[in-house]
Amino acid sequence: MVINRKEKSASRDFGNLVHHLPRAVFHPRSPQDIASLVKTSYESPAPFTISVKGQGHSTRGQAMARGGVVVDMRALREENNSNKKKNIRVIWREEGYYGDVGGEALWADVLREAAEMGVAPASWTDYLYLTVGGTLSNGGISGQSFKYGPQISIVHEMDVITGKGELVTCSSHTNSELFHAVLGGLGQFGIITRARIALHPAPKMVKWVRLLYNDFSAFTKDQERLISINGRKHNNNDNNDDDVALDYVEGMLLMHQGPINNWRSSFFPLADHPRIISLVTQHSILYCLELAKYYDEKSENNVDKEMQGLLEGLSYMPGFYYEKKVSYVEFLNRVRSGELKLQSQRQWDVPHPWLNLFIPKSQIMDFDSGVFKNIIFKRNITTGPVLIYPMNRSK
């Protein structure tokens, strides 16, 4: 183990709004090193604050430890790489595939390793260069969550270091109270050092669609309609494995404060930018509904017809339908190119005053008028992405 007392990177995070210097930065070489550190603090007459930092994508200093010790999980990843140890193992048993994944592993690396075996997790975050332990400590929500649940719903088992420095294996059947507390527990109940996650056959391709709306009521009703289709089969045949539902549903705002193609992904054809900008000028805010349906060689001939059927009766603006067909990996990694572009422009490390909120259906129209229109638009205060994820409470 290595303790560094001069590492200023531990006082920063993605939000770049809060900066707290730790007393030291801890570079573990194994989960046992972390357990020893936590145990030392627990048994000390003067316990010290410990925080765990994966990729540091918190926005308000949550991964910092003022005057305490920051555990840099990147050290575990580097240790495994230098010793050619695999912190991502894809395993098959009779009940199916699963992945045993280190808490320090990046989801982008999980995708690469699993895809080589033709499998993948069903639920992702939009941005893949985050640690497994980090997103599982927060929930892991994306456009797939309405159907597959957040990432915490695909976990079978974990190794967790408790506040006493004990390394405990837990699942929904063993040490279940710890298991459920740690998943989405914001790091307050334990440190995830390994997660066993469910894997499923990975699709090959994605039909990716964006639709434009000038009316929020129509936009949100269509989102709700599309996520309610989840689970329907061809010809109502329960024995048919082909699900006609979408696999991904998100939404976003288009405003003059930001470019038509925001940094997250380039989508709209350049030739259409003038008429989209004209539409934004006319309506002040546009609502973009973003959809995706997965397919492979078996379902390739049906995907266009199925998408057409799903979109029938929706209230998007005529003439403002856009589509792409991309590989599954390209779709999941869609935010990466935008990140690299911003890094080249030295814009990736600017302050990110980001906020995530759960809004009940009963309040969503008030949120549109009160926040989208009367704060974001009227005060001209943002150029960042504003995303809208429809969720099924049952997931």
UniProtKB/TrEMBL annotation:
Record's keyword annotation contains Oxidoreductase: yes
Q: Which PROSITE patterns match?
A: FAD_PCMH, OX2_COVAL_FAD
GO molecular function term, any single one: FAD binding
Q: Which superkingdom does the taxonomy of this entry point to?
A: Eukaryota
Q: Does the keyword Zinc apply?
A: no
Per its UniProt entry, what is the enzyme's top EC class, as one word? Answer: oxidoreductase
Q: Where is the FAD-binding PCMH-type domain?
A: 18-202
Sorted keywords for this record are: FAD, Flavoprotein, Oxidoreductase
Question: What's its catalytic activity?
Answer: N(6)-dimethylallyladenine + A + H2O = 3-methyl-2-butenal + adenine + AH2
Q: Which cofactor does it need?
A: FAD
**What EC number(s) does the entry state?**
1.5.99.12
Task: Please cite one Gene Ontology biological process associated with this protein.
Answer: cytokinin metabolic process
Q: Which family does it belong to?
A: Belongs to the oxygen-dependent FAD-linked oxidoreductase family.
What is this protein called in UniProt?
cytokinin dehydrogenase
Question: Which source organism?
Answer: Arachis hypogaea
